[in-house]
Structures are given as structure tokens and as C-alpha cells.
Design brief:
This protein is an alpha+beta fold. It has one domain: Roll (CBS-domain), CATH 3.10.580.10. Helix content is 35%, strand content 20%. The strands form 2 sheets. Strands 3-4-5 form a 3-stranded mixed beta sheet. It has a two-stranded antiparallel sheet with strand order 1-2.
Length: 133
Amino acid sequence: MLRAKDIMTENIISVRKDTPIYEAVELMVKHGISGMPVVEDDMTLVGILSEKDVIILVYGKEDDENKTVNDFMTQPAVHFDEDESLLDICDFLRKNIFRRVPITSKEKLVGIISIKDALEYILELRRESAGSG
């Protein structure tokens, strides 16, 4: 059975709770991602920040300049263990509004799986089966 750790992205862009919010938004835009995990220094997962969490910045309130990720992130973050079945994770993504889920090992962030990761895996399987036929 395929597990989360088999397809998760391990090179993760993450932020800390005290990261200035506009710095976090710049990271999302620069890397073309719609969200990222929020971690402590030891990589303990504490939340997740998505573009939906920060879209309120369009109102441009004066005090936004001093706000941090902690003011906007969703916590606690829904996450899955690295040994969780990939089918269970895909079923969760299909039934919920989430576009990505952090993957943990003993509460420490070790990866992330996005819908795009699952789609890339589907295409890889298709190419492999076409090549073996």
C-alpha cells in the first residue's frame, strides 16, 4: 500500500509564527504556492497559512504592517502521519476544501502533499503502465 511518505514533497517552504505577514505573502507569491505550514524552530507543526487566510489584507488596514503569521494562520493544522495511506489522504482532499496537507512524523513536519502532487503521481502511474504494455 502506498503511503504519504512515498509521494510527499520533502523540500518544504514553511514559516514561523513570528514571521511578518507580508514576508510570508511574498514567499507564497515568489514560489507559486497557495499555502505553507507554520512551524516552531524544531519543525513542530503549529498551523498552516493559506492564501485564503491572508486575502483580507486587500483591505490594507494601517496595523497590518506589524502583523505576523500568527495573526492569520489556521491552527491547529490538519495533518497526516508519514505512514498514512495515500488513498486516505486523497479521499480527505477530495471531500474537503483543503488543497494541501502537512505530513508529520511524531508531530514534526517532514513533508507536504498537495492535490498537484497526487495528480503528478497519477500521471506517472499512467506513463509507467503505458510503457510496460
